Amino acid sequence: MENQTPVYELAADKAKHLYFSYDEHNVTFPHYHDSMEIVICVKGEFHARISGEEKTIRAGEIAVSDSYDVHSYKSGENSAVYVIVISRQFLVEFRNAHGKMTFPKFIQPMHGADEIIEFVSRAHKNNVWRNPSITLGFATYLIGLIENNCACTRPREKHNSRCVQILSYIDEHFSESISLASISAHFGYAPNYFSALFGKYVGMSLHDYINSVRISKSQTINNGALKITEVAAQCGFESLNTYYRALKKFGSIVKSSGD
Fold first, then answer.
1. Are 27 and 73 in contact (CB under 8 A)?
2. Tens digits of residue pLDDT in 177-193
3. Which are the contacts of 196, defined by CB distance < 8 A and separation ≥ 6?
4. Which three-class secondary structure string do you get for the chain?
5. What is the mean pLDDT of residues 137-166?
6. CA 161 to CA 157: how far, in whole Å?
7. 19-61 tens-digit pLDDT
8. How many CA atoms lie within 13 A of 201 on its CB side?
9. Is the Cβ–Cβ distance between 201 and 170 less than 8 Å?
10. How far is CA 259 from CA 5, 111, 244, in A?
11. Residue 228: CB partners within 8 Å, gap ≥ 6?
12. pLDDT at 160
């Protein structure tokens, strides 16, 4: 996938937005949005982390990230998935029917998987996400197929509020000096506790996550008009060596991620 992956994916929350893709190699850094994201494994397997819980999802199984769940994915070799992001405007009937409940994070096994995969595959071939007249029908029918085979047994988490606040803070202050000591103090935690909390929800160290955000931002602003030293400085890197180390570690993954 070629899109950037910001911490908060604003594009995913556009009104009446439906994102629909077929990916043979899906890698995304932790992110969140108000929309529901459904990832259907059709071949091989992929590793999913949703709000601190990890599972390996295999062919015929589904991962569901609901509103403000912090989630990330990494596909294995020879794997393929459908990724569908459904904005809240298309979820009105589902919300009315289930209130504060939603689908489990991981649907294993997925009864009716063949029917769901056949429907999604046909819809993708027909480019339904490009036709505003039928996107609501597609989203509603897909949700209905999953409902027919899976009860809504998971209470919707109240915006994973603390984790969302932390990620939003990093997204807003990535160009500044952010240390474990400073950010843990800002949120009123002891450094060791903050580090454990962050690792649980995000699945990577604070240092690595901040650098991955900075690399993502650098790729957004680097349009050729600025020198590399200027780009690195604007994104919070203290030296070119630090920038290049982060670019080597995260650049290819950041480029390939996103909704």
1. yes
2. 999 999 999 999 999 99
3. none
4. CCCCCCCECHHHHCCCCEEEEEECCCEEEEEECCCEEEEEEEECEEEEEECCEEEEEECCCEEEECCCCCEEEEECCCCEEEEEEECHHHCHHHHHHHCCEECCCEECCCCCHHHHHHHHHHHHHCCHHHCHHHHHHHHHHHHHHHHHHCCCCEECCCCCHHHHHHHHHHHHHCCCCCCHHHHHHHCCCCHHHHHHHHHHHHCCCHHHHHHHHHHHHHHHHCCCCCCHHHHHHHCCCCCHHHHHHHHHHHHHHHHCCCC
5. 86
6. 9
7. 999 998 777 878 888 899 999 999 999 999 998 899 999 999 9
8. 21
9. no
10. 7, 26, 26
11. 222, 240, 243
12. 61
Prediction pTM value: 0.71
Whether residue 168 contacts residue 8, with contact meaning beta carbons closer than 8 Å, is answered with yes
* Token pair belonging to 122: 């046909």
